[in-house]
Amino acid sequence: MESHIDDAEKYLGMPVVFTEFGVSVKDQGYNSTFRDNLYSTVYKTLLNSTKRGGSGAGSLMWQLFPEGTDYMDDGYAIVLSKSPSASNMISLHSTRIAIFNSLCSWKCKWGCKKKTALDTILYHDEL
């Protein structure tokens, strides 16, 4: 991820969005801790890029399903009501990005304006 972000900044001069990432419950040795660590890594990498005005622009996991759509699950689905740890992580990341972007005071190369935000929300170690 970091090399893609660096390439987007140095060579392309544009933001990058990470899409369709996830872990299948059908994979041998699957456990929710591994899935949560993957999401945490993705979100921390993007937040760190955002904090410095970098190219990490966003993420779209594969797949977020509403309750009652289990029949469409290919193993990658997250149903928020059935996965509180993933739900909390997604909510926290969304809140951090929204707050950070709302507190802008300097102009970065992507047209947003960043400034030091609430340390307790943005710089908390647990994602």
TrEMBL record:
One of its GO terms (molecular function) is mannan endo-1,4-beta-mannosidase activity. It comes from the Eukaryota. SUPFAM superfamilies: (Trans)glycosidases (SSF51445). Gene3D superfamilies: Glycosidases. Signal peptide: none annotated. This is Mannan endo-1,4-beta-mannosidase.
